[in-house]
Structure formats: C-alpha cells, structure tokens
Amino acid sequence: MLAVLPTDQPAAGERFLGAGDFAKETLITYPVPEERIDLIRRVLQPAEVRPRRRTTELTVAILQLVASRRGVAALPNWGIRTTWITDT
Fold this sequence. Notes:
By secondary structure, the protein is α+β, with helices and mostly antiparallel strands. 31% of the residues lie in helices and 16% in strands. The longest helix is centred in the C-terminal third of the chain and has 11 residues, at 77-87.
C-alpha cells in the first residue's frame, strides 16, 4: 500500500505514515464500503482516526484529485504503476 500525497505535503518526504497522518486529511477512495478498504479497516479504525472521505470510481481520477490538493489516497503499488503506464 502506497500513500499518494501532493508533492508539497509535509508528509510527502516520509518513508512511512501512521494513522495520525490521515486525521486532518480528506481520504480519496473508490466508492466501496469502508470494510473493504484496507487502510480504513486495518490502520485508521483501530487508531480511531476518521478522516473526511471523498470517492471516485477511477484510479486516474484519484491521482488527479490528489495532484490538485483535494485530498490524499492510499493505493496498491500495482494500481499506481498500471495507471501510470497505461495513462501516460
């Protein structure tokens, strides 16, 4: 799982992020129940962190929203590589 952050985000240079790093952010996800999102289920819920959530159906849209500073995301490595290779 890779965090996807705007390049000017203070945490962008960090190697690892914790649940608290998402607390004041808008989390951009696919429109699926929270139980199906690993970041929420395995990291945020146990830490009782509930960021605002925005959804979109396309990986490229998630990346564009992050790039335009509308939130942050966490995506599988393969999802980012596939989108980057396919859409550029």
